[in-house]
Specification:
Helix content is 76%, strand content 0%. It has 225 residues and is an all-alpha fold. The chain has a single domain, classed as MetI-like (MetI-like fold, Orthogonal Bundle).
Length: 225
Amino acid sequence: MAGGFGNALVGTVVMVGLGALISVPLGILSAVFLAELGPHSTLAAATRFAAKTLTGLPSILAGVFAYATIVLVTGTYSAPAGAVALALLMVPTVVLTAEEAMKSVPRITRDAAYGMGCTRSQVIWNVVLPSALPGMLTGVMLAVARAAGETAPLLFTALFSSFWLFEGGTPKLMQPTASLAVLIYNFSGMPFENQIELAWTASLVLVMIVLLINVISRLLGRRRA
């Protein structure tokens, strides 16, 4: 079914979700290495430098990278290509905030766990990660919020579509995919009143999604703190 507003909402959720599936595990694993396994190694220093550099990466360059590595290889604009571009923007935020959250765990807590006979992996998994969870959730929240509002990377990778991503009950990821940010970009300059209203509605929905992510992250972090 063509047209409508829901396809852009679904496309945004899918691409941001896929981007989070790529960036969050990678970012947290990198932060574990930076904070616990090799904080003073040459590789750690290079990783920190790369992460800090990527925080200032223009979003359009992330789209160009994903276009060159995914779109040109597959021969089509797609949701996975958009997810890769968003993941590239999300990773540095997750890495840096997760590392700082792990470093904020008191040293005495680690020493007490080691004194009880815990191995390094047990200390990281059962002590450091649960204690640092609120800070890590904040980083994930910031990364997701940034990704949800990006437009330029998706113009290069997912483009836009008037069709539903799951039309007919079968996911069609390898095709142009709609998103709220691109819908706002496309419709805000249209001469038709209904499309301008749709752009304003999409803006409101995007704000509400970011707010919802903030609330859920706060509740989860408070529950595990």
